[in-house]
Amino acid sequence: MLPPPNDPEAQIPLPSLPGFDPRKIPVDAVDSHLPPVAVDRFAPAFLRQRLASQPRWTPDIVRDPVDAARTPRDAAVLIGIVQRANGPTVLLTERTAHLSSHSGQVAFPGGRTDPGDDGPVGTALREAFEEVGLQAEFVEVMGLLPTYGTVSGYIVTPVVALVAPDFKLLPHDFEVADVFEVPLAFLMNPAHHRHHSRAMPDGRRAWLSMPWTDPATGKEHFVWGATAGMIRNLYRLLVTDA
User: Fold this and answer.
1) Are 197 and 208 in contact (CB under 8 A)?
2) Which of 86, 94, 114, 199 could form a cystine bridge with 178, CB 3.0-4.6 A?
3) 100-109, 113-122, 153-162: which range is least confident on average?
4) Where are the domains of the chain?
5) Per CATH, the architecture of 31-239 is what?
C-alpha cells in the first residue's frame, strides 16, 4: 500500500512548481512484486458483482496533497471499461494545455458537480457526454469507488461503468486534446505502477505514474497523480479476495 500523503494541509500543489515535469522525476520503486489482477476478473459478470457487493478492502491512496486555500468542491469521473473483443480497455482523455486546472494531464472524463446533477453518477454521465460525446445509452454503471481528494480542491467520486464498444465520440475541442484507451490488463498489473517522490519545502511528496505507449501511434500517455491513484484503488478492489 502507498504511504499516506505528507502534510495534507500543504500549500504548494506539485503541478504549480516552476519547471515541474513529472516525467523527469526519478522512479523510486516499481510494484512488480505485487500480483496482477487475474484475467477472469475482467469479465463483466465479475465486475458487476464486485462493484455491487464490495468485500472489505482499503484504498491505497485517497487524497493528493491539498491546497488548504481552496474550498472543497464535489466532482465525479467516469472510469469507463470498454468491452473490446481483444480485451477490455479504459477510456481516458488528455486535457488541453490552456486549461487552468490540470492542463495537459491524462484524466478520466468528469468534472465538477452541478446543482441539477442526480448525484455523482449524474455528474459523471453528464461530464462524459459534454467532454467526449459519450452517450449514456452506451454506459452501464456498476458502482462507485471511495472519494479521492485532488490537489486542486475537488472531492472526486469515481464511477465505474461498462461501456459498449459501438459508441462514437465527439470530443470537446476546448477541454480535450486527445481521447484514447489503455488495456485494462496493463493498468491492473502493478509491474507498471511506478512510485515517485520529491523533497518539498513542507515535506516529501509521493505519487504514482503508469506511462503507457500506444502501439498504433507510438505516443506515450503519461498517467500519473490523481488518475493513477484512482486506477490503483480500482486495482486494490479487484485484486482483493472476498
Assistant:
1) no
2) 94
3) 100-109
4) 31-239
5) Alpha-Beta Complex (3.90)
Cell 466532482: give the residue. Answer: 75
CB neighbours of 74 closer than 8 A, spacing ≥ 6?
A: 112, 113, 120, 123, 154, 155, 157
Side-chain-side CA neighbours of 73 within 13 Å: the count stands at 15
Model confidence at 103, pLDDT cuts 50, 70, 90, reads very low
Q: Is the pLDDT of residue 159 over 50?
A: yes
Q: Where are the beta strands (DSSP E) in 50-188?
A: 73-82, 89-95, 106-107, 110-112, 139-144, 148-149, 154-163, 176-183
- The strand pairing partners of 78, in sequence order, are 159
Please give the Cα distance from 106 to 54 (Å, whole number).
27
DSSP alpha helix (H) spans, the chain: 44-52, 119-132, 184-187, 225-239
What's the grid cell of residue 181?
A: 484507451
Instruction: Tell me what percent of the chain is helix, strand and coil, each rounded to the nearest 5.
Output: 25, 30, 45
Backbone angles phi, psi at 158, to 5 degrees: -80, 125
Cell of 170: 465527439
- Going from the C-alpha of 155 to that of each of 13, 63, 162, 199, the distances in angstroms are 15, 9, 23, 25
Model pLDDT for residues 167-180, shown as the tens digit of each residue: 999 888 767 889 99
pLDDT digits (tens, 9 = 90+) for 111-126: 999 999 999 999 999 9
Q: Helix, strand, or coil here: 42? A: helix
- What the block records as the C-alpha cell of 234 is 480500482
